[in-house]
Amino acid sequence: MQFKHPELLWGLLLLLIPILVHLLRLRRFRDTPFTNVRILKKILVEANRSSRLKKWLLLLARLGLIAALVLAFCQPFLSSQTVGKPKDILVYLDNSFSMQVQEGNSSLLQNTVQDLLQFLPEDLRFTLMTQSRTYREVEVRDIQQELLDLGFDPGSTDPAEVQLRADAYFASRDSAERELWLLSDFIGWDREAWASWNNARVRAVRATAGNPVNISLDTAFFGNKNPETLELLVSLSYEGPWQNTPVSLYDGQRLVAKTTAEIQDDGAVLARFLIPAGEGLNGIVQINDNGLPYDNVLYLSHNPPEKIRVLGIGPSPSPYLARIFSPAEFAYAESDLRTLDYGLINRQHLVVLNELEAVPEPLARALQEFSAQGGVLLVIPAADARIESYNTLLAPLGAGLQPRVEGDNPITGIVFDHPRFQGVFEKQVENFEYPRAGLYFPLEGTLPAMLKFQDGQAFLSGIDGLYVCAAPLGDASGNFRFSPLIVPTLYSIGRGSLPGSDLYYQVGKEASLDLDLTLEEDNIVEMRGAEYSFIPLQQSFSRKTRLIFGDEPRLAGNYLIEYQGGPIRQASFNYPRTESLGRDTPAGLPDRFEIYPDVERLVAQYQNSMAITSLWKWFVILALLFVLVETFLQKLMR
């Protein structure tokens, strides 16, 4: 029991007054009995005993009356141990895309916001944390309009990030009592992520919708290609019973085609479109369903391929390189050392150092500068290569050649996980006709292998701006030049020297796009969308400009890349689809979470834990009872 005015307990000293009065009244004169009053003496003794009992009972009643009145004025009450201690309440409101699902006539987010506005006490101070914003130390009336205007955030609900933000908030506070209220559908939450978290008491409300049904446009990619047409495949996923849904393809505002997605034998759902190969596409793929709205649109862009400039430097022409780097996609040129124009090097995207006996020092410096400026270099040594001159070129770039090794060595390993082989092979081929090298120069450095010899040594290594082959390709002792592997390998290196834009990029995920553009001084590249424009991070090289995406853009859509007021090409961005599925298998939550069916019961339980039971009325009633007891003793007892 606690007291609102404990200082009034000094009033209990008043109990001394009836005690002193009682003690004083106990003083009586002693009577001496006579023989002729023996019967009277017996009557007086009995009367004295009854009076003494009455006095003790009156004393107890008066002591109880005074004590009850004093305690009533102290206003005693009962409460939990946490009442009166500093308390911090952090409310996390999930406004990710998964909260768009409809429950009744409103979304889960709108229903949760209405519950907060309706059931949170007006005088309750708390901190509200959404996906992207935090409102510190507010009352519900302070942020009523912000809650009503709250939109959906493209980021997925990452429980680890929520935990880090909650840790950071509570670390800045010195409150004794901490509570975290989680209001979410908990799609994609990891039970183990919170299993050991004990920074606050956790109350959770799971927002749910009955019978979830949703169809999502997941991704798009090219299938079969030919010089005239490209097959555009759009992958869909669904939750609930499958419904035949029309899929529409727009080029800007113009409807290009409409088809119906089909379930494949392997369970995948695909929609197919044919588009012209040599034309650009400002694409929007769209469906209509009653599930989540955000995944009903997929933006994509197809730009006509730019020709990649390739320069081959060797002692003689190489017809096999000219066939691989065909005029349809590449601008291929060759030169020998005697007629080489060094000024051409910096204007290329890819330089192939093709079986030179030695690399002159001026050429080595020019190629090192070329590589530093973002160019891609492919080094193929000659059979009689002077490795000292080659290492003069390669050592500053982190690679090198060892002395020549002769002997037949088959090339048996393809590193399918290498970035240059991504999407090149339909499946991982293990049994094929292995090409061979009759001599090779073991490679030094840390470049990842693309192709390997049978003994595990690298035949071709490289990444990004440098690729080094361990053996000559035109030497009679080897046959790699005639192997089917040479075309996809060198072609992928060529295409990677100026990667074209992807069909689309993901909002919030780091990515880059290389433009065949040299920035002039004080000029920048801008990106303009229908509702939103931004200036991306950009890195300028001597022959290209690299755009870097991550924090920007924040909105999905098709964007026009502009330079000096004119359009260059297009790029598309889509929100991640991680919020689309998983509602039929909700994530498990740690057992220590206090789960409530709705916000109303969470708030009611919180208020009950903070409730104070006043006892002063009961002490007033007790005082009245003592008055009645005293009156009864005075009237009825002699």
UniProtKB/TrEMBL annotation:
Top-level taxon of the source organism: Bacteria
Keywords associated with the record: Membrane, Transmembrane, Transmembrane helix
Keyword RNA-binding (UniProt): no
Transmembrane segments: 6-24, 56-78, 615-633
Domain Aerotolerance regulator N-terminal: residue ranges: 1-76
A Pfam family that the UniProt record links to this protein: BatA
Keyword Transmembrane appears in the UniProt entry: yes
InterPro entries: Aerotolerance_reg_N (IPR024163), Double_TM_dom (IPR011933), vWFA_dom_sf (IPR036465)
PANTHER family the record matches: BLL2463 PROTEIN
NCBIfam families: two_anch
Protein name: BatA domain-containing protein
Native source organism of the sequence: Robiginitalea marina
Taxonomic path: Bacteria, Pseudomonadati, Bacteroidota, Flavobacteriia, Flavobacteriales
